[in-house]
Amino acid sequence: MFELSKKSWKWVIGLYTSAMWTTSLLWLTLVTYFIRDWQLAFKIYSSPMLFAILYIFYYPESPRWLLERGRTEEAIDWLCKIAKTNGVQIERSVITEQLTQLKDNRRSNNDVETHETVVDYLKRVKVSGRFCILIWIHSSAMLLWYNIVFATGTMNCCIYVTFTVMVLLEGPLRMSYNAFLLKRIRRKGIAFFISASSICFIILITLQRYEKEDEFWIPKLVFGVVSKLMVQSYMTYMFTIASEVSPTFFRARAMSALLAFGNLSSTCAPLILKMIGTNTPVFALLALLSANLIFFLPPVIQADLPNNLDDAERLALTAKKLFAF
Question: Model-level pTM?
């Protein structure tokens, strides 16, 4: 989706993913409240995923990726279909002429077309190093997210009330301020939201340790809801910047790998929390320290998506901070 939008609209794509996450959490809350058989609830909750099969027939292949792989005719076909869907009348010959001109300009700039591989990606330490930082931050944030979720029952007398309050606030509130902030920040958004979530959660567990007979239930609910709201907000910025710093041939792989490592952390979180308990600041402190690693990535606001590894490395030239690479 990032590759099909102009750079001034990339924030809209990030906002769209944020909205879908909130919708899915509301759906999860409703299903588990009315259906207490966890197996049946899981089947019903997962059923909308069947519609993803339609993406194969409906969603267009990225023309940018097809061009990078030398599949020019397929790219032209998709561009014609996209134009027709958008109600734009454009001749195939015009698209062909523009792409030919683009290729000629790249040759004149000594931008040789090469089929880059994952091995090439790993050899570029600056580029692959950025991705390792994103994986580490996302993994630590997912550990914190699950710590907050598993501690939901201690924030209020009813876990469904607490979670419903969280979801209802996350929807309109997170969408509204992300619509404003995502146009202007990426790295600062990740650092701020993870740090704020960590601090709120540490305050929450501190209240839990020193309260007597639920005397702090209102502050606990407030800090718990804010903590989850903050860590939920960071994800929009993470997946947006992950697409913006990855070259075309690796962009889809980057998103898949980021999700895979996040899922690995999600799998490990319940096992670790079972041993150390949910009333612990370990994951919050880890996320708090990890969040500031994001400033090692270059700024990407209004930057063109990198087509290849050379473009990805050149992103660092626009960095205003000394330690961005």
Answer: 0.76
Going along the chain from its start, the domains and CATH numbers come out as 71-108 (no CATH), 118-318 (1.20.1250.20)
Quick check: 290 and 187 in contact, CB under 8 A? Answer: no
Q: How confident is the model over 106-136, as pLDDT tens digits?
A: 666 555 556 788 888 989 998 999 999 999 9
3-state secondary structure 276-296: HCCCCCHHHHHHHHHHHHHHH
| Contact between residue 320 and residue 299 where contact means Cβ atoms under 8 Å apart | yes
Between CA 59 and CA 54 the distance in angstroms is: 8
pLDDT tens, residue by residue, 263-278: 999 899 999 999 988 8
Residues with Cβ within 8 Å of 99's Cβ and at least 6 positions away in sequence, in order, are 67, 72, 75, 76
CA distance 224 to 204: 6
Residue 305 pLDDT exceeds 50:
yes
Do you know the residue count of the chain? Answer: 325
What one-letter code names the amino acid at 133?
Answer: I
pLDDT for 137 beyond 90? yes
